[in-house]
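Help wanted!
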Amino acid sequence: MTQRVAISGIGVVAPGAIGLEAFRALLARGETAIGEVTRFPTEGLRAKHAALVTDFQARDFIAPMKMRRMNTLSRYAMAAARMAIEDAGARSPLSRDCGVALGTAFGPVQTSVDYMQEYVEKGAALAPPQLFAESVANAPGSHIAIEHDLRGFNVTLTQRESSALAAAMYGASQIVKGSAESAVIGGVEEATEMTFSVLDRIGALAGESRPFDRRRAGMVFGEGSAMLVARREAEGAYGYFSGFGIARDTTASISDWGEDSGPVVRAMRAAIVDAGLTPGEIDAVYASANSTVRADRLEYRAIAALFGEKPPPVVATKGVFGEYAAGGALPLVAALIALGEQTLHASCGFESGDDEMRIDVVRERRAASLRNILVNSVSAGGGIVCAVVSR
Amino acid sequence: MRNPDRETRVAVTGAGIICAIGRNKEEVWRSITESRDGIAELTRFPGETFPTALAAQVDDDLTGMLPIGHAEARRLSRSDLLAVIAAGEALAQAGEVARERTIVATGTSTGGLLEGEEYYFSRLVRGRRRAPASRVLQQPTSAPADAVARAFGLGGGVVSNATACASAGAAVGMAADYLRAGHCDVALAGGTDALCRLTYSGFNVLQAVDAAPCMPFSAGRKGITLGEGAGYLLLERWDDAVARGAKILAELCGYGASCDAHHPTAPAEDGRGAYAAMRAALGEARLAGVDYVNAHGTGTLLNDSSETRAITAALGTSTPVSSTKSYFGHTLGASGGIEAVISVLALGEQLAPPTLRLTEAAADCTLDYIPHTPRPLAMSSVLSNTFGFGGSNVSLVFARVV
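Answered by r_m:
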């Protein structure tokens, strides 16, 4: 039996946009939120740009006494969760068995670094316990559960660029299964000097994000958090999770994409089948494309292979907020906004693709009849998670 | 979305384990039957001083055990290597499975944090540009699942769970649901964690480590002994396992998960979350009780009393319970995988492992904890508990194949 899971609340802490309405407006303007990094020194690094959260005031969302115990990751996640729960609560309150499923690619790297700094300076016996408690990847999910008394399943999933979609797949499947009536689902990421500099060392980062464009030369790091309240049923839902599919490219090397588009096709097809649909019923694809030469090629080949002569329009959103933003949850939110507005977003940063590219990448924001959108996430290392969201 | 159909049964057809008491199932089970623990002086971090000095380390040279090439192994973290060894054992036992349809579901709390630490130290000495960055790439908690999938050419997908000490239990439960929903045909599910400085120091500053070998459920218990290792199960749908003539070791018939929603590190004293996870797992298994509980049993004051309350509420006071962490320590994110393997072995051998060093149970620990030596026991089902920081709780129920 095929079931859908309703999305009844959305909270966003995005680069250049706090709150769903601000994020909606950012996407509508088609502007990039990428800018020069001033949070940490970039001297000696090739990359100097990132999509960072600005103008975020944690105290607008979290009580000061509680905030002191939370790292940046937890603060982003708590703020996004509060917005999502309040947004959903306007319709009906959450059940106590509500679950939490979050995705994060790198987790609390900065807290581990801070802890080890204290370890080096003060010794292994005198490092602060507060930092240790906050160094586990599931600290944000734990804070959300405590704050809102959510006693259902509580998991944090990490699958690089696919983290948030992996979390959505798990959270939605638990609602379908009946383990919980509702769940807070989303992702969170923080741009840290450590992660940024390591990705720079391996040449993964570029100064600008141009997904699917022929001049693309690498990804730009993004951060933030986005949370969705998902439930079995809801009035006035933003949309529905209707299918998920996973696969893995066995040709991928440790920190790079592979060359076999077959597994991407398999994952997309699996998500469409899980939704009880056929490829012809997919009205648009919100792509994984992150401006990396190989990843984008893999994906446009896969889309062309699956959909054949008349592929649906493809939107690449990471030119706005970079890769890893909100643990990968922002493309999902963008797709839900598109469903609600019946309008496809412009693919910020895209002008013209490789000669061999046979897909229709949306350049200008345009009205469209949208019932089902396929959302892709294709990870370095080979993991792939695809989702179908429906009106 | 297809429902993870409860009528679809999940078979365990392979198991693999590496921890302080053995490098594979046979060695581990021999240690269990001989009541021989793996707790000894911590030697992994020479020159560094911690408030306590014991650990349950894997002391063997891992490189000789690897089913992968030397060049590949050099790029992996210690957590990756432990995972590849245990997952390889499970896969070998299961025999020929459809690798293109096999997912890897891995729980890990630290991933490659050991290598991450070494990179941090190296940066402090040599600076950002000169520190060797090769193995820090394996720091993310998603890396061990990728490493296992790479090692064995698995194309079904990867999913990693970083829910602190509940990670591997949740990964196993998730894999069962994905099998039932048809998202994959085969799953390698379990967990891995290598000892690292941050966790060794961190549990010490939380004053959660016993200076002596841990004494779960004992009157004098003072905390955990940290361990390391990996444990994986090979799961497939029952009918598929029967059709290909595989030997079925056990049925994975129940998975329950909950959150205390109480405190970032401490469990709820009334054991409410643990109770809810156990009830959910028993409900999915359609069982009113089980014949043995492999407890989370960390040896901390709070865990052992709240878990005892939860078990009492869920199962009464007559079900035998033990903590095998008294053998191989608390292996953190790996514990749910390692203890799932122990549970499956116990079912197969019809022998319940004991809680070592339990000479006098604490006043707040009022169950039958199987002290000192294994107990022959007719078991048709067992329940394995795994709880973690953040109040996450996972229970798994396994049933004997008859």
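OP: Thanks! One thing I noticed: The mean pLDDT of chain A is 96.
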